[in-house]
Specification:
The chain is an alpha/beta fold. It has a single domain (4-135, 193-289), classed as Alpha/Beta hydrolase fold, catalytic domain (Rossmann fold, 3-Layer(aba) Sandwich), CATH 3.40.50. 43% of the residues lie in helices and 17% in strands. It is built from 12 helices and 8 strands. It has an 8-stranded mixed β-sheet with strand order 1-2-4-3-5-6-7-8, with helices on both faces. Strand 1 and strand 2 (13-20) form a beta hairpin. The radius of gyration is 19 Å and the shape is globular.
Amino acid sequence: MVYYEEYVPINGIQQYFLHCPAPGAATVLLYLHGGPGFSASYRAYLLNPPQSTATLVFYDQRGSGKTLLKNRSAKPTFPLLLEDLRCTIAYLKAKYSTKNILLLGHSWGSVLGSEYVLGYPKTVSAYIGMGQVVNMKKGRDAAQEELQRRIQSRKQSTTASKRRSSLWLQYRYGFYPPLLNSIKSVWKSPVFSCRDLPALLRAPFVNKPLNRFLWEYDAVQKPVYTIPVYYILGKNDWQVPSILASRFFETIRAPRKKLFWIPDAGHSTDVDNPKAFWDAIAEICVQISS
């Protein structure tokens, strides 16, 4: 992976950026990570971005990753994150001399991204939701129903299974990737070192208010967009059930929209199947430039 890192003053803080340039590409794909508080830049190398489709840019949100390391007292709030994002987009437009900004929100980032494009639609070319959050409480119920279906399909005692935590069972039944694999993928990252551990451990506490915001969020209240909207959903995503996002997508009104189903992929849709992910991004780039 060809990349470079930098810190940039954004909205009063030093914000960390990871750039994967695509020389000659007219589009910048800005990636909003999940969590809240977990930097996606650590696993950017797993995407193996092509050198022709779009310049891929990650940034660590306020209260996350390397941005948290530089700004330990800068506590995140949702209004601040929206303003950080607005300033970030303005910076990238000037840096790359382009108006073509694709905003991709993953998981928690899909809440931030959705709300941003509703408020500032003219600043980006299109919105992409991946692991799209619709309603966390309804998603939890849907995941629990699927978990019980899988337990019963294996002819195991539902009563006995309740002695274990739901999270443990979700790991066991494939809702989450093996925890050790996830740790290894971060540890092997070319942009991760032991110096990043304090921020990784501190982020969940710093982002507690955003977690409350996440659990109260309901996308169904706002299904009208004035820019193109695309969803990239993993067929096997039960962490943030893609079945809910696909149903919500049917109700969305937008000038152009398309849903891409990614096979052999769960919540980490892009990392699980990078080729299918980049095929979808390439198609979106063609559409927004036509």
